[in-house]
Amino acid sequence: MKLSRVFACLSLLLIIGVGDSLPQHNPQVSQMVTDFGMKVFREVVQTSGDGNVVFSPYGIASVLAMLQLTTGGNTREQIQAAMEYSIEEKGLAPALRKLYKELMAPWNKDEFSTANAIFIQRDMELVQGFMPYFFKVFRSMIKQVDFTEGERARFIMNDWVQRHTKGMISNLLEEGTVDQLTKMVLVNALYFKGQWKLPFPTKGTHHRLFHKSDGSTVSVPMMAQTNKFNCTEFLTPSGHYYDIVELPYHGDTLSMFIAAPYEKEMPLSALTNILDAQLISQWKGNMTKAPRLLILPKFSLESEADLKRPLENLGMKDMFRPGQADFSRLSDKEMLYVSQALQKVKIEVNESGTVASSTTAIVVSARMAPQEIIVDRPFLFVVRHNPTGEGLENTRWLPIPLSCAPLGKSCLY
Ligand SMILES: *[C@@H]1O[C@H](CO)[C@@H](O)[C@H](O)[C@H]1NC(C)=O
Ligand SMILES: *[C@@H]1O[C@H](CO)[C@@H](O)[C@H](O)[C@H]1NC(C)=O
Ligand SMILES: *[C@@H]1O[C@H](CO)[C@@H](O)[C@H](O)[C@H]1NC(C)=O
Known about the structure:
- By secondary structure, the chain is an alpha+beta fold.
- It has 2 domains: 208 residues, 2-Layer Sandwich (Antithrombin, Chain I, domain 2), CATH 3.30.497; 154 residues, Alpha-1-antitrypsin, domain 1 (Roll).
- The chain is 25% helix and 30% strand.
- The strands form 4 sheets. Strands 4-3-5-13-12-11 form a 6-stranded mixed β-sheet, sandwiched between helices. Strands 6, 7, 8, 9 and 10 form a 5-stranded antiparallel β-sheet that branches. A two-stranded parallel sheet has the order 1-2.
- β8 and β9 form a beta hairpin.
- The N terminus and C terminus are likely disordered.
- It binds 2-acetamido-2-deoxy-beta-D-glucopyranose (3 copies).
- One 2-acetamido-2-deoxy-beta-D-glucopyranose binds next to loops.
């Protein structure tokens, strides 16, 4: 089984298994979180063309859950409709917290951590009771920063991200992304370091040709090992076969699943279009252990996705519109909207395992007040006939000296 065809195209970081591995978790909640994250992933793939995409479904689901609590009206309804759940539904927040705890439980030698943060402009007047309510739902404290000191605020947030991704993502918010108008930033950070249960022998790694989707080839280092793997094959609704192989990590709670179409020319979209939590658990449920020679690229990837278009395509339009976004549950004094939604991911896959990190952020800004023009000084005016572009005095412009219009009276020549 050669997996070179799927190389570096699409990867999903942390799909929460439905009904397997994690003890006593609520399968519905993990399925909802995963399915929503996958929906966003499909949109990201569609808007990103042929590039490599690494995506963290859990990250986007986490920040949008926080966003739900700050929005009202249509803005909130659109988010809930796309996510297909309300964070305020009975029992949901506790189930999410439980899931989070299980994800964070120590797994032998594998390391996994994730954290959410909400940064709010220090002196913003919040709706009464927002802070304790937010704490009640998410059990996480609101961090107050001063965005008017843009660089300092950016440093504080980037530092938080860097610490929670063990240094892998050091510059989440680039220069100029935080300014006087920034009022809130929601962030999820995720870090994973897993060792293969069946490591690849380093001497088995050689350069081989990798076939890109455009028909060209590149020579890349590929790892190889012969072993008994859990594998299966499936058929897409469009009639294409693909192989699936499971690469478990050391602690046996996490695995990487790799799906590769048989035919080189089959577009990966045939797979991504049908991918959801249930399909992945069907893969897992249909696996059998069989000896295979597995050849897999050794790679590291960085990907950055602007989530605005993908989220809009899923119906969450109002939050991006300064005139329509409704953040009335956060603040009824400020007119706010989502000015940016982004995700950065880094992943490295080699003979010993995987190191990966992702950060998802939503930046909420105040609507810029319309620029004022107050004519309270002497002014100059020109009367111009627009169709001809001529001043009314035939071809001559008619500038009126500043001093001529003292109290806003028109000066007639
Ligand atoms: C194969 O799947 C079974 C059942 O989930 C699991 O116990 C086993 O560790 C897996 N083995 C490999 C090599 O993936
Ligand atoms: C195996 O796959 C089929 C679809 O091909 C699915 O209907 C079935 O539920 C799967 N079995 C398990 C145990 O997941
Ligand atoms: C794989 O990558 C990790 C993290 O960068 C590194 O610690 C490890 O030594 C690498 N293993 C091999 C075999 O190159």
